[in-house]
Every structure is written in C-alpha cells, then in structure tokens.
Design goal:
This protein is mainly beta and 151 residues long. A hairpin with a 4-residue loop joins strand 1 and strand 2. The protein has one domain: Sandwich (Immunoglobulin-like), CATH 2.60.40. Strands 4, 5, 8, 9 and 10 form a five-stranded antiparallel sheet that branches. The protein has a three-stranded antiparallel sheet with strand order 1-2-7, with no helix packed on it. It is 4% helix and 36% strand. The protein is built from one helix and ten strands.
Length: 151
C-alpha cells in the first residue's frame, strides 16, 4: 500500500513524562505498518525537534542501531477508523546522538513525529504501507522528561 492510497495520519501528544505518537487510519480499509520490534520497523519512526528561536534549529532523532537476533518482517494491522499508539519515554527508544540537543533542555521546543516506510519486497508481499507521514508540530515545555532522563 502506498501513501497515496491510504488515509494515514500521525499525531503527537506531549505529556510530562512521555510522548504519545498515534497512527490514525482514516481510510475505509485496514492498513499495515511495520512493527517496531523487528529490523523492518525499528527505524521507521523518527522525531524532528526544533527550537522556537528565529534561527529555528532542527534536529532529527533516530533510534540507535539495534541488533536483532531473531528477526522477521512483522507488522501491525490498523483497522479502518482505528489507531495505533507508540509511547516514547526517555529510555525507549534510545535516540542516536541525543547529546546533540542536550543544550536545549531548558528551552521550549517543537516536536514532530515522522513515519518513513521505504519500499521493499517484504512490504509488497505482505501489503505493508509504503510512504511518509508527518505529524503536526507540537510544543513541549521544559524539562522535556519524555526525552531526557534528567531535567
């Protein structure tokens, strides 16, 4: 399934100690997305973090590389009108190069979730959504405990 033939939407809810990323299926058919518990899905979700300053620095956070000892192309099926929730906490997933934005702990930030699923033979065979979906920007007030383990 490609981005043009589905009605997926991504939403972000900033909470004090967690970030909820919700994939909504507004279509009339179920949609499959890769489960993040395997190598096909692990890197499909990223975050873009930006400052509110006039220079507006943007930083993309991707999960740290993870070795999968048992691996298969697993997916999550989101029914028509349904949704899937992924909860982001400071220790899950571990973000690669988080230290690049440690200096922003005390600043108001904007955050956007990004879902990127590239084409693959497995996606074709299993009917998994292929495409890109971005959430709207949401504001996060310090100390961003959903991202950093210490204020």
């Amino acid at each position: 399934m490609t981005a043009g033939s589905s009605r997926l939407a991504l939403d972000v809810l900033v909470r004090r100690t967690q970030l909820d990323v919700i994939i909504d299926n507004h279509g009339t058919d179920s949609v499959r997305v890769w489960d993040r518990s395997n190598s096909w899905g692990w890197n499909t979700l990223s975050l873009t973090v930006a400052t509110l300053s006039p220079s507006e620095s943007h930083f993309t956070l991707t999960p740290k590389v993870r070795a999968f000892t048992r691996n298969g192309p697993g997916f999550i099926e989101i029914p028509a009108g349904g949704s899937h929730l992924t909860v982001i906490t400071p220790d899950y997933p571990e973000w690669d190069q988080l230290e690049r934005i440690a200096h922003l702990r005390g600043e108001t930030l904007r955050v956007q979730a990004n879902l990127r699923i590239p084409p693959s033979p497995e996606a074709t065979v299993l009917g998994v959504f292929v495409g890109e979906v971005d959430s709207q920007w949401q504001e996060s007030q310090p100390p961003h405990l959903w991202l950093f383990t210490e204020p």
